[in-house]
Amino acid sequence: MSVKAARTRTVPHILATVLMASALTGCSLMELARDCDGTDARVAEVGALGILDSRPDRATVTRGSEEDAPHCYADSGDVVVSAGRTYAFPGTRAEVAAHFRAAARQDGWRPDPEAEPGGLGFAKDAMHLRVDFTKTGYGLTVLSYE
Description:
The protein is of the alpha+beta class. It folds into 2 domains: 1-33; 34-145. It has 4 helices and 7 strands, in the order αααβββαββββ. The chain has helices spanning 3-25, 29-32, 40-47, 93-106, and strands at 60-61, 71-75, 78-88, 110-111, 120-124, 127-133, 137-145. A hairpin with a 3-residue loop joins β6 (127-133) and β7. The relative contact order is 0.15.
C-alpha cells in the first residue's frame, strides 16, 4: 500500500471518529468554537452586581488583584463570565457567613445545591456566588455560565 493511499483512508476515519465522538458526548464542533465575543454587556452586568459590594461592618476591599476585574473566559466550549472581590476582615467566619446568608436571600439568591460540602455558595438564575475564606478575610466570586 502506498503512503498516499494510507493517508486518504486515514482522513475519513479521523473525521468519522470526531463526528461520532461529538454525537455521543452531545458536543458539537460549533460548541467547541464558542468564545467571548458579544459578552461585554454581560461582563459589565455581572461586575456591577450589588452582592459583590455587600460586606459586613469592618470589612475592607483589598486592592491589587487583577483576577477581581470582571472578565469572560472560554474553555472547551464553555463560556463563563466571572467577577469577584477580596476583602480583609478582622471578624470571624461565622460573621461573614451570617452576613451573606441574609444579604444573598434579600437579593434573591438561594443556597446553591452544587456548593461543596461545608462551602458557602448561592445561586441565582444562571449565576453562582461563592464565598471563600482566607487567612485575613474572604473572597467573593460570581460565575455566570453563558
